[in-house]
Amino acid sequence: MENTMKAVGLYRYLPIDDPNSLLDLDVPTPQAKGRDLLVRVKAISVNPVDTKIRAPKEQIEEKPKILGWDVAGVVEQTGEDCTLFQVGDEVFYAGDSTRQGANSQFHLVDERIVGKKPNSLDFASAASLPLTSLTAYEALFEHLTVSHNKSSNVGKKILIINGAGGVGSVAIQLAKNVGLTVIATASRQETYNWVKKQGADIVINHHHDFSSQLQEENITNVDYILCLHSTQMHWSAMAEVIAPLGKICSIVETDKAVDLGLLKNKSATFSWEFMFTKSSYQTTNMITQHEYLDTIAQMVDNNEIHATANYHYGSINAENLRKAHKQLESDTTIGKIVLEDFD
């Protein structure tokens, strides 16, 4: 294996229109130790977390910062403590935001957050799934405590705010798979069509009043809400339509305090989902991400859910990644953006 590898990284945090915001680089090839796998990166996907970490700030890096937390590839090396994978295994994963990302030819990742790639998908399609499917899976089944038993979910409703985004696209499918009635929000014809394609039963507009739109569908309240867009903007609307004893989960940070008191009389629960918590804090249940990814791969291979890649931006290089970041920052992305192979 070569001592150096191609990568896309940054030294300064700049607006995406600046050609120095993401650079083509040659960096040392890492080696696998402990429970790390060294993965040959075949395809990647781009997520809002990439643009948030890259967002302009004064900080300057001495060593290049490499982004990228959605990967499909092949195990090239295993650390001496690895037990879950072997060289040659095809894998997919979202990685660890406290470590270097995977916009590089080779990438180190702890095997406990890696899954076997779905057999039925090519690498590009597989790369569209890990971060969003893990986020959706943890939100639904850990935080909202949705049952996996379909009979337990008969008549129960979930509202998914921003159903056409990366997480929403998978969350709709997972929720439908366990028998929930899925209400998704969309505000354009293209996003309406997309969420219906993913399986949403009812679509409402997140720019309009939730309660009155639900009443038009003869729905008074919902058992679960998954907020994937602007938590503080939708806070009072969510408090209004959540059922007594209902649960709300959000993945979107707020820059202003929200009034938890609005949930008190309903004894409603609010929680955050952040997919990188387990790897960042090395939690004792970190291996659940390996287990969830294997479950998701099996669901894909069983045609229970499908990949949500909607744009293929070509080879993995700085120019194409800048285009992908720019599209994500426009807030108009439907589904996922993938890139494949290095030039």
From TrEMBL:
<dbReference type="InterPro" id="IPR014182">
    <property type="entry name" value="ADH_Zn_typ-1"/>
</dbReference>
<dbReference type="InterPro" id="IPR052585">
    <property type="entry name" value="Lipid_raft_assoc_Zn_ADH"/>
</dbReference>
<feature type="domain" description="Enoyl reductase (ER)">
    <location>
        <begin position="20"/>
        <end position="339"/>
    </location>
</feature>
<protein>
    <recommendedName>
        <fullName>Zinc-type alcohol dehydrogenase-like protein</fullName>
    </recommendedName>
</protein>
<dbReference type="InterPro" id="IPR002364">
    <property type="entry name" value="Quin_OxRdtase/zeta-crystal_CS"/>
</dbReference>
<dbReference type="InterPro" id="IPR036291">
    <property type="entry name" value="NAD(P)-bd_dom_sf"/>
</dbReference>
<dbReference type="InterPro" id="IPR020843">
    <property type="entry name" value="ER"/>
</dbReference>
<keyword id="KW-0560">Oxidoreductase</keyword>
<dbReference type="InterPro" id="IPR011032">
    <property type="entry name" value="GroES-like_sf"/>
</dbReference>
<keyword id="KW-0479">Metal-binding</keyword>
<dbReference type="Pfam" id="PF08240">
    <property type="entry name" value="ADH_N"/>
</dbReference>
<comment type="similarity">
    <text>Belongs to the zinc-containing alcohol dehydrogenase family. Quinone oxidoreductase subfamily.</text>
</comment>
<dbReference type="Pfam" id="PF13602">
    <property type="entry name" value="ADH_zinc_N_2"/>
</dbReference>
<dbReference type="InterPro" id="IPR013154">
    <property type="entry name" value="ADH-like_N"/>
</dbReference>
<keyword id="KW-0862">Zinc</keyword>
